[in-house]
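debug: dumping io for the single-chain case to check the tokenizer round-trip. Nothing else runs in this session.
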Amino acid sequence: MKDFVLECCVDSVESALEADKGGADRIELAANLIIGGTSPSIALYNEIRRQSDIKIFALLRPRFGDFHYTENEFKILKEEVAMFRDAGADGVVVGCLNVDGTLDVEKMEELVKEAGDMHVTLHRAFDMTKDPFETLEQAKKLGIKTILTSGHKNNALDGKDLIKELVEKAGDDIEILVGSGVNANVIKEFLADTNATSFHMSGKVTLDSKMEYRKEGVSMGLPMMSEYEICQTSAEKIREAREVLDNARK
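debug: decoded output
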């Protein structure tokens, strides 16, 4: 019987509770998922922990953009690993690259050591590396437990062939977590065509803001994005994915 994992990426208490309600095994906790995710606040982590006992992996990324970090950025990243370790997080999700597109093994080794007994996931910095198979072997040697990947493509379906290869080469040494564009139907396709068993999704829907007064002509962020739309995980979408995995287990 296969062991399936369903991880949900969230950036609010409400989304975390919806993920839990829908049957996710764990959450990847971030801030600002609209730009790919940045490090969440410890206050956000604490509030979710007060309301739920779901496993929490904290995505740690000091800024939007590439994964080659300055010394100052790396100091922050390392301190965040220690902060979430001390807070009792179940895992951290991190990634550092060299300028030539290889994994920064030296920095990653420091982060893995700082994490202690926490689960360490190499996030989609993996998808920005030059050689996925070399990076896979480096991650194994570092003791990283999971690689989150879309198969070096923008979405997992387009990267399915590479993901299939990665799952085979990973064996039981490291979890290949399929992410980007994942939903119940995508999971069905992966179960039919690959040996993948771990899936990462947001299950998000767009909600209309409760604001009645809406100021025209003022934008707090990217001008093409509405200030009055809120992206939030839907328990129903997570439940649909959970049911696919539960049925495959039978």
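debug: round-trip ok. The helical segments are 13-22, 42-51, 71-87, 105-115, 132-142, 160-170, 184-193, 235-249.
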